[in-house]
Amino acid sequence: MAPPSSRRSGFSKKAQYSLFTGYLLAGAGALLGFALLALSLWQPAAFAPLRGAATDAVAPAGEASAAARAGSQSLFAGIAGYINAGRQNAELRREMEIARIRLAEAEAVRAENARLKGLLGLRESEAKPVAVARIVGSSATSGRRHAYIGVGAANGVRPGMPVLSERGVIGRVLETGRSSARVLLLTDSESVLPVRRATDNVIAFAEGRGDGLLRIRLVNLGVNPLKVGDLMVTSGAGGYYRPGVAVAVIAKITPDGGIARLVAEPGATNYVAIEPIAQFAAVEVLSATEGPAPVPSRRTSPRPTAPAPSAPVPDGIETPG
Amino acid sequence: MERLDPRARSDIYGKRINRAASPWRAVSVPYLTIMLGSLLPVLLVADLMPLSPPFGFLLLLGWRMVRPGLMPLWAGAPLGAFDDLVSGQPFGSAILLWSLAMITIEMIETRFPWRGFWQDWFTAGVMSVVYWLVALLASGASLTSDMLTAALPQGLLSVLFYPIVARAVAGLDRFRLARARTIN
Given an 8 Å threshold on Cβ–Cβ distance, is A141 in contact with B54? Predict the structure, then answer.
């Protein structure tokens, strides 16, 4: 292709100047970009209002595409269901029988739990969601794993609030716009979440690896007690999450813990609930001592070296998640 | 003449007599399509790994290469600012990278004035791989080998998408210059 003749300035002073100005402006744009990038890496929350306004504008389109996505998912699931109907039927019947037994066992455990809690004088805290919303989009081109939800500050959503689906933890609210919010997903490489094994008190940190899996790092090193298939639930340490919500299932064992797969995948989720911060007072203390705002990132999250203020509910009395 | 062949007095931009291109359309289509390209991946839910190629950047490359001289040299900065607002990257990364991309293509074009499709694809491929890597580095996440492996398909896709984007840009250019306005 021939180059456009507009670039050849020749002897025209005007053309030469406009060409020079173009280069100057482009260079200035690059420098400005560099400065803004450095600023936003140094202060991640600096441009939150701007981004909030942008996602507020995009969210309605996301609602429509989320509805379409949910529809197509159920369509595919329906077709797959027809193909596997017979085999699935037998399997489900067997599973239901086991589930009935487990349900009876759970009833017994619940009764005992209530009795023990009554002895301790603990009150059953019922977390009422602040809002229920659709996941309207995500940062699909970026290396960060963020999702956007269709509710924001106008609905009472604040940064730091846990985002849960009916299966388990999705992530935490990072920034809010007026009618949309940005969620830091568990799979993001900057996300850290204190967890424990559902069956006992093996505590660990679940860190996102950035490739869809979580790295479980045990707090107490030594003999690794984890086994493939163990369910990790939130421990409630740090104060953001209420204890006992399912997080991940161990898929592989490593020397310092394991690699775990998510229980609640945001892509397969229709609606999520945004819950209030479980121990607001603890989070306030944490943010006052460690950083300016309760932004959920590696910098403000509790580390194994710095023990976080643990939840007042002692471990071992909570209902197993 | 029209009775024999309805397209006799037309070219690819439509009828030629008493028609003209819409000035608004001629100016706005490149910018609108690039912004739309930035917005589209937001509507996908990619929860496990970066999934979609950076369509906004690919369309910028496409418009710049298929239609040189259409956008000013500094167009990367404002378009990049819009991309930053929705892409999830730290604000400023696309402003920087898109500006640098525009300057780089300008310099390549001064060095090799006569270009063909294959050279364009090569340039766009190298640039989108570099963009993919630098965007990962600038995303604020600590880059690990796991993350790089998970993002590899995205880098590959963005190289392979250039021919499709170039064809789409050519089609959009025809739409841009279509003679939609009737002159009376």
Answer: yes
